[in-house]
Amino acid sequence: MSDLGRVVVLAGGLSHERDVSIRSGRRVADALRSAGVEVQVRDIDAALLPSLLADRPDAVFPTLHGATGEDGAVQGILALLGVPYVGSSAAACRRAFDKPSAKDAIRTAGLATPDWVAIPKTTFRDLGTHAVLDAVSAALPMPLFVKPARGGSSLGAAAVHTREDLPSAMVACFAYDETALIERHITGREIAVSVVDTGTGPQALPAVEIVADSGVYDYAARYTAGITEFFAPARLTAEEAKSVEQLAVRAHTTLDLSCVSRTDLILDADGIPWFLEVNVAPGLTETSLLPLAAGAADLDLGVLYRDLVQAVIAE
């Protein structure tokens, strides 16, 4: 057995991404056990905090996706309890989870990100749906991409190619969040770059290229085996690989993230990487991108996760 002590993996929660979180938690627990770590998997419920206080683990490994898991709430509570955990600070999570705030910081840092506007649902009520959408269409050329300002797994996200498609995309988006992020849809290759820091500074794993059969990397494409093709490492030139890895590391450091993150980007025809969003709790399921990247780097997942735990205990 490992000398790390006991690690609690948090999985589940009450967000729209509960099922994905449970799958991620199961995979992380299995990987840690394979590396000799004692693991207990716990859900987010009223019994969690009394359990952590009564029998304090040596560390917590959250695999919670969506609200609560990525918005800094759980991280803030764990910090209050003084329990080491794998992941970013509550403040960094809040900043990264809110996509418009993250894009503001990324653009200020001089990195490319598509032009966008963030519109709350109440704005449509106050100013009128048609007037607001006309203003959007005039300012941002088609095609566009609509997604919840806060959320993940592509839930409520859709590509929009005509003005007529915009209202239905907004309705779908508002089912998952009160604010919609509408941005220019950049054409190019969809790339994901995971960044890990086991105590020696953030390092980019090999980029993963995503080719969805449907042409859209939506929820089904993410979590249904066999309908999306992944290239790990991505089919990039050395210069392209360097540029996307540098963007991901800069996004990680710009947003003051810790331990692990995944940056989603588009590499356009001119070789320019465009930041789309960053995930502070990337999926760790059997079809997720970080495990694919780790495999491309010949990293053992159990060892990687163990090293992440070891690093936060040592802080």
From TrEMBL:
<dbReference type="InterPro" id="IPR011095">
    <property type="entry name" value="Dala_Dala_lig_C"/>
</dbReference>
<feature type="active site">
    <location>
        <position position="17"/>
    </location>
</feature>
<feature type="active site">
    <location>
        <position position="288"/>
    </location>
</feature>
<feature type="binding site">
    <location>
        <position position="277"/>
    </location>
    <ligand>
        <name>Mg(2+) 1</name>
    </ligand>
</feature>
<keyword id="KW-0436">Ligase</keyword>
<keyword id="KW-0547">Nucleotide-binding</keyword>
<keyword id="KW-0067">ATP-binding</keyword>
<keyword id="KW-0963">Cytoplasm</keyword>
<comment type="pathway">
    <text>Cell wall biogenesis; peptidoglycan biosynthesis.</text>
</comment>
<dbReference type="InterPro" id="IPR005905">
    <property type="entry name" value="D_ala_D_ala"/>
</dbReference>
<dbReference type="InterPro" id="IPR013815">
    <property type="entry name" value="ATP_grasp_subdomain_1"/>
</dbReference>
<feature type="binding site">
    <location>
        <position position="264"/>
    </location>
    <ligand>
        <name>Mg(2+) 1</name>
    </ligand>
</feature>
<keyword id="KW-0961">Cell wall biogenesis/degradation</keyword>
<feature type="domain" description="ATP-grasp">
    <location>
        <begin position="103"/>
        <end position="310"/>
    </location>
</feature>
<dbReference type="GO" id="GO:0071555">
    <property type="term" value="P:cell wall organization"/>
</dbReference>
<dbReference type="InterPro" id="IPR016185">
    <property type="entry name" value="PreATP-grasp_dom_sf"/>
</dbReference>
<dbReference type="GO" id="GO:0005524">
    <property type="term" value="F:ATP binding"/>
</dbReference>
<keyword id="KW-0460">Magnesium</keyword>
<dbReference type="GO" id="GO:0008360">
    <property type="term" value="P:regulation of cell shape"/>
</dbReference>
<dbReference type="Pfam" id="PF01820">
    <property type="entry name" value="Dala_Dala_lig_N"/>
</dbReference>
<keyword id="KW-0133">Cell shape</keyword>
<dbReference type="InterPro" id="IPR011127">
    <property type="entry name" value="Dala_Dala_lig_N"/>
</dbReference>
<dbReference type="GO" id="GO:0005829">
    <property type="term" value="C:cytosol"/>
</dbReference>
<keyword id="KW-0573">Peptidoglycan synthesis</keyword>
<dbReference type="GO" id="GO:0046872">
    <property type="term" value="F:metal ion binding"/>
</dbReference>
<comment type="function">
    <text>Cell wall formation.</text>
</comment>
<dbReference type="GO" id="GO:0008716">
    <property type="term" value="F:D-alanine-D-alanine ligase activity"/>
</dbReference>
<dbReference type="Pfam" id="PF07478">
    <property type="entry name" value="Dala_Dala_lig_C"/>
</dbReference>
<protein>
    <recommendedName>
        <fullName>D-alanine--D-alanine ligase</fullName>
        <ecNumber>6.3.2.4</ecNumber>
    </recommendedName>
</protein>
<feature type="active site">
    <location>
        <position position="153"/>
    </location>
</feature>
<dbReference type="InterPro" id="IPR000291">
    <property type="entry name" value="D-Ala_lig_Van_CS"/>
</dbReference>
<keyword id="KW-0479">Metal-binding</keyword>
<comment type="similarity">
    <text>Belongs to the D-alanine--D-alanine ligase family.</text>
</comment>
<dbReference type="InterPro" id="IPR011761">
    <property type="entry name" value="ATP-grasp"/>
</dbReference>
<feature type="binding site">
    <location>
        <position position="279"/>
    </location>
    <ligand>
        <name>Mg(2+) 2</name>
    </ligand>
</feature>
<dbReference type="GO" id="GO:0009252">
    <property type="term" value="P:peptidoglycan biosynthetic process"/>
</dbReference>
<keyword id="KW-0464">Manganese</keyword>
<feature type="binding site">
    <location>
        <position position="277"/>
    </location>
    <ligand>
        <name>Mg(2+) 2</name>
    </ligand>
</feature>
